[in-house]
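FORM 7B: Structural annotation worksheet

SECTION A. Query
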Amino acid sequence: MAAPRYRCARCGHAFGEAEALCEDWTDPARSFLCPSCGARLIRAERVRAALVPAPVRARALFLRWRRELVLGLAVLCAALFIEPMWGERAAVGILALGAFGIGVRALLGDGAPVQETLPADLLEATTDTVH
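SECTION B. Predicted structure
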């Protein structure tokens, strides 16, 4: 099984345990930082209180799906290029095959499990209600 990967709650970057940055390993709010944007994170499974994270920002959503968006744009361009030469059926076939391929790629991802993270400032807002 592949090493667990984490997804940054701020920018959507997926990274491994070895890639994570650390400011101070004794402080949980400063021991797990995103290597891409430097946001202080905590692993979602370490928080005992039920938290509702902030809505995903458009930039984080774009960064998470940018490969699929670029592939979709390439497939659309290929279909528009092929349509005048071979007709509408060929263009629709290219679009269907491209959508299927992009869907499979999106479902398979990187092949490693990705665990969600939360911003570390939520750690200060949690109260230990478990006795």
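SECTION C. Observations
The radius of gyration is 20 Å. The chain has one domain: 5-125.

SECTION D. Sign-off
Analyst initials: ____
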